[in-house]
Design goal:
The chain is of the alpha+beta class. Among the domains are: about 90 residues, no CATH class; about 70 residues, no CATH class. Strands 4-3-2-1-5 form a five-stranded antiparallel sheet, with no helix packed on it. A two-stranded antiparallel sheet has the order 6-7. The protein has a two-stranded antiparallel sheet with strand order 8-9. The longest helix has 27 residues. The protein is elongated. It starts with 16 loop residues before the first strand and ends in a 5-residue tail after the last helix.
Length: about 270
């Protein structure tokens, strides 16, 4: 098994493959190997899921009563490209030097040290799905794209840092903290640009939308407000101010929604 690929990584587009089959061990299980043994046996077959939407293996077997080829029975536990036998040397895989062959996943076939490092980079650091098989060439393309993206972010970050002041030293961008990511800096710039645009060119439509939003937020506060709360003992309690007047309790989200709506509407009136 150490020289076979995991069937999870097998192509399922009708490609003919060299397969390793595990027979059922019960005497009543279908018996279709080419040798009179219940040990795993080799055959050829395919899975045509991509074209039929049915995840089913079809492979050759032998009918010992009729002495003829039949559709085999058993579980596919390994595969190799058609015409490529397993390596005769123990612990050496026949596909080890094929950059387009899927890397081992540590299941039936142990991973090499290089595969383990690539898998760690892809899954733990880059965040690709861990239920998909990758070839070395695919891994290389993914890593190169991510490195190129990182360089672009560094260039954007440098550009943002250089643009934080005009010739007179006046701030024209938000203040960036050391802990801010490049994405957060870009988002802060976009937010500032939107506020300045609305201040310089207030739109009647924006005002109407802002007013509607403010009304909806105020309604949410009114609907969600309560004059009681449940204590730990299950009893209801309430609040009063120093003058004895009843206080209303408003959920945090509803209150923040109202605050945000007020700020948004106020920003459109700054330029007036």
């Amino acid at each position: 098994m150490r020289n076979w690929n995991d069937p999870v990584c097998a192509p399922k587009d009708g490609t003919m493959l060299h397969l390793l089959i595990r027979q059922g061990q019960d005497e009543n299980d279908a018996f279709t190997p080419f040798d009179d043994s219940r040990e795993p046996y080799e055959t050829i077959g395919f899975n045509n899921l991509a074209n039929t939407q049915e995840d089913r293996w079809d492979f050759a077997g032998w009918d010992w009563q009729q002495d003829c080829f039949v559709t085999g029975a058993g579980e596919v536990i390994g595969w190799l490209p058609f015409g490529q036998p397993p390596s005769p040397i123990e612990n050496v895989r026949g596909d080890l030097y094929d950059a387009d062959a899927f890397m081992a996943d540590g299941g039936y076939t142990p991973m090499t040290s290089a595969e383990a490092v690539l898998a760690w980079l892809l899954i733990e650091k880059i965040g690709v799905p861990d239920d998909v098989c990758y070839s070395p060439n695919q891994a290389q393309d993914i890593i190169v794209r991510r490195l190129d993206l990182a360089r672009e972010l560094e260039e954007i970050d440098a550009m943002l840092a250089e643009g934080q002041g005009d010739d007179q030293g006046h701030p024209i961008m938000p203040e960036f903290t050391k802990s801010m990511t490049t994405y957060a800096k870009v988002e802060a710039c976009l937010h500032l640009l939107e506020r300045r645009r609305d201040a310089l060119h207030p739109s009647p439509v924006s005002n109407v939308v802002g007013a509607d939003r403010l009304i909806e937020a105020a309604k949410d506060v009114i609907v969600s407000a309560s004059d009681t709360y449940k204590k730990r003992n299950g009893h209801l309690g309430s609040f009063e101010d120093d003058s004895g007047e009843k206080c209303w309790i408003v959920p945090f989200d509803a209150f923040e929604g109202l605050r945000s709506a007020v700020d948004a509407l106020a920003s459109t009136k700054v330029g007036r």
